[in-house]
UniProtKB/TrEMBL annotation:
Keyword GTP-binding: no
Signal peptide: 1-21
Compositional bias ranges of the Basic and acidic residues kind: 213-223
Keywords: Signal
The protein, known as: ABC transporter
Entry-linked SUPFAM superfamilies: YVTN repeat-like/Quinoprotein amine dehydrogenase (SSF50969)
Organism: Microtetraspora fusca
Region (Disordered) location: 200-223
InterPro entries given in the database record: Quino_amine_DH_bsu
Length: 414
């Protein structure tokens, strides 16, 4: 019932207008076709065709079976495990919705649509769910890294090349390459600021000394003069894009269409084997973690422009769980460790893996994925995935029994 008099009056006017419009459309006069067609109702904010919008995130894990090579989808809400593809063995990464898994022979990357994703609008986010599927295989030897945004996904390979994929086409189930970029044997290609940041020696092997800014189809657009020697590893944060360099990290920001670079140097000069080669972090966080060879863990606070070396000894896998949240480290003895990023102190440990890692290196290597409240650690020997509440002294919240050794694991829906 409408109790407000003004609302009742407005409703009456609207009803009369609708009735008159209906009468005009049913006439037989020659001018009937000139009556304005009623406009379709506006689509709701955040509408995505073919997807269901959710009230909260719906995380899933895409997991490769180390025995059969089958890709499975683990729904972290229902606990259901389903097969979604085949022919995979290793993990490369994800862009929030799609998982990229290397094939057994290392010559291609299989793309799996996890079917859940988050769209960050800055002051709020939208969460979606759709059908998971195997999108297909992307050719390229030994895939190393995946970085994506709303427009493109960049898949980088060990030979220094990177393929640029159209994100809109991916969402329709098509693998469309918009560009192929060669960094010259090693380097980094990062989607940022509706452009591509390209750091490397260049296709002729000549050290360019800075970072190229290119359009999404690979054309030159700008240049960042701040040097980044021997680029390795990259990440995108809310404070800018980060590219690992021999002397630290290059932070790239953009304002008013102008790109600038700022060097965050290592404290001292670490040995080459102790440099940060790949960054790991929770999406949205400005705190990054990287293995520091046998020395321990590098923690990069992007907001504070500061490195910290946690002298923990060698780690199998590491990740940062967020700003003012612990850094996690998994060691070969199967123990998960938590460290305070400000003090460097160890705050919690838990014996997690079913067995220590073998020294031969033949077995799959465990991985850590983190979201806003939980971390997920793969356990190849235990044929399981452990869910960890990292804000509660590494409490094991759940263990998902898989029935196969997980060789790779990528979280979607974050």
């Amino acid at each position: 019932m409408t109790r407000n008099p003004a609302a009742r009056a407005a409703l009456a006017v609207l009803s009369a207008a609708t009735l008159l419009a209906g009468c005009a459309r049913t006439g037989t006069d020659e001018t009937d076709h000139e009556v304005a067609t009623q406009k379709p109702a506006a689509l709701p904010h955040g509408y995505v065709e073919g997807a269901e919008e959710l009230a909260e995130p719906h995380p899933r894990l895409v997991i490769a079976d180390g025995g059969t090579g089958t890709a499975h989808l683990l729904d972290l809400v229902s606990g259901d495990l389903t097969a979604v593809g085949g022919g995979v063995i290793g993990g490369v990464g994800g862009d929030g919705r799609f998982a990229y898994l290397s094939t057994r022979n290392g010559t291609a990357t299989r793309v799996i649509d996890g079917g859940t994703w988050t769209v960050d609008h800055g002051d709020h986010s939208h969460y979606y769910r759709a059908e998971a599927r195997d999108v297909g295989a992307l050719t390229g030897a030994d895939p190393q890294r995946v970085l994506g945004d709303v427009g493109v996904t960049v898949v980088s390979f060990s030979d220094g090349t990177a393929k640029i994929l159209d994100r809109a086409a991916l969402e329709k189930g098509d693998l469309v390459e918009t560009a192929l970029i060669d960094t010259g044997g090693h380097g980094a290609v990062v989607p940022y600021g509706e452009h591509l940041l390209v750091a490397g020696d260049g296709p002729a092997g000549k050290d360019t000394g800075g970072v190229d800014v290119r359009t999404r189809d690979g054309r030159p657009a700008d240049r960042i003069r701040t040097p980044c020697p021997e680029p390795h590893g990259a990440a995108v944060t809310r404070r800018g894009a980060v590219i690992g360099c021999a002397d630290g990290a290059l932070l790239v920001t953009v304002k008013g269409g102008e790109f600038t670079g700022e060097k965050i140097r290592y404290p001292g000069k670490p040995p080459k084997g102790d440099r940060a080669l790949e960054f790991h972090h929770r999406p949205g966080s400005t705190t990054l973690a990287a293995r520091a060879g046998d020395a321990g863990i590098w923690v990069l606070d992007v907001a504070a422009r500061k490195w910290r070396l946690l002298k923990t000894g060698p780690a199998v896998a590491v990740t940062a769980t967020g700003d003012d949240a612990p850094v996690l480290s998994l060691t070969a003895d199967g123990v998960l460790h938590a460290y305070d990023t400000a003090s460097g102190d160890e705050t919690a440990t838990t014996e997690l893996l079913a067995a220590p890692l073998p020294r031969s290196g033949a077995a799959p290597v465990p991985a850590i994925q983190a979201d806003r409240s939980r971390a997920y650690v793969s356990d190849p020997a235990g044929k399981a995935v452990h869910e960890i509440d990292y804000n509660d002294d590494l409490r094991r919240a759940r263990t998902f029994e898989l029935g196969f050794p997980p060789a790779a694991m990528v979280e979607t829906g974050r």
